[in-house]
Amino acid sequence: xxxxxxxxxxxxxxVLFFLIGAISVLFKSDLEIPAPLPKLFSxxxxxxxxxxxGIEIQKSGFTDQVLPTLSAAILMSLIIxxxxxxxxxxxxxxxxxxxxxxxxxxxxAVTFISAESFLESQKIAFDGFMVGALALMExxxxxxxxxxxxxxxxxxxxxSRKMHLSAILHESFLNGSVYLLLSSLIVGFLxxxxxxxxxxxxxxxxxxxxxxxxxxxxxxxxxxxxxxxxRLKNAGSFLIGFAIFMPLFNAFIGVLVxxxxxxxxxxxxxxxxxxxxxxxxxxxAAMRMTVPEAKSSYYISTTLGLTFPFNIVLGIPIYMSLVNxxxxxSPL
Length: 332
Prior knowledge:
With 332 residues, the protein is mainly alpha-helical.
């Protein structure tokens, strides 16, 4: 791994704004982002990447590479939480193991966006259809996590906490972030198919504003991540180690799958980042509602306070190095 690649990533404006946000908390600055703005920017980023992804999918079509890649993405989001659950069961009960495993089986859209920015800074090409993989990988892990609780939890669990399949599916596919991302993907696809002039009209909103909005959102994420750091002491060394080991392990599996799929380096990195990232929005929302026995301080503090900054600052360059090392090897 080249040190220059790490430095270029760390010195990129989005990462710098993330660090500035974190430092403001550590030095007790009174910097504060009004509550509605991070939510607004989060929705904007999902809308923009979904719209642009739909356009790119329409342009590329459902080729022999697109469909296997999307299928592999779904498969990974089903397998990763199962592996995580088996590891976590050495230390935690069923509820906490399932909730944490689901968080690490799902994805982080902001980490994905940061990986796109990294690729653009390195002038490495990637395809827009990878946004489809992003949209498809968020929900399956939630379903797996809830099914693990349903089948592995003690039989004497209170009836008031029994889960119904319809509620699981509703939360998995119709939570706000998934719904907006999928909807924007469809809008982008239909716009590119039937009304190309709409793309030009949307460009100032979804294109030129995007980088600045990403920086501002990461400034807030840095503040929130730093605020979560003190809670990590409650997680214990096992979970702290898991928060670093699991992304690296998932990245290694991801790069092997990317090599099997013959993905180009840019697409391979995005696929690996999706495998290595962890959810701190959709999964916690689902778990708080359906698995109240699990401690939210475990799966939120580790994903947001440790795994997210690790991936943003160091993980992406490490994964790029993995891609550059393993992808060029002879076919599997």
